[in-house]
User: Fold this.
Amino acid sequence: MGYDNCMLQDICSLIVDCPHSSAKDEGTGYPLIRTPNVGRGRLILNGVQRVSRSIYLSRISRAIPREGDLILAREAPAGNVAIIDSDEPVCLGQRTMLLRPDEKIVNPYFLAYYLNAPEQRSRLLRVSNGATVSHINVADVRKFSISLPSRAFQDKVANILKSLDDAIALNSRTNGYL
Assistant:
């Protein structure tokens, strides 16, 4: 099987940094995706902070997050990547980035699994900086090298891993109800 070596910016139609400001939790409204909400593969929406429509609109001025986009935590914890897997509107909190995979080239779920794999996370964290807290620069994310298999292979891998993750999530919710 052949792999194409490319950079993340080559397989994403959009890579956008968050607004460089914090927003206060208003208790109701739109989910504000902060770094603690970016799990490895999935968004963690339990206890997510929420913002008003006006704050939401200001935070989506660079890009409107949509289903299939990835959100990367640039610090605390640096390197986590989660996919937006529903059409619920969300906005980026501080220290996050939005990646929009070009779906003609890359399966968004495959890319999320790829970036969360131990080897890739380690490579991404090696380019991070910061004396106290690791911080990943936007430029380094854009230039991050990817070894991409065929789209057919990506789809197979993503379907298998997503099925397993869905089963684990269902099991966790069931255990939570018990």
Q: What stands out?
A: Helices lie at 8-11, 53-59, 108-116, 118-126, 138-142, 151-177. The mean pLDDT is 91.
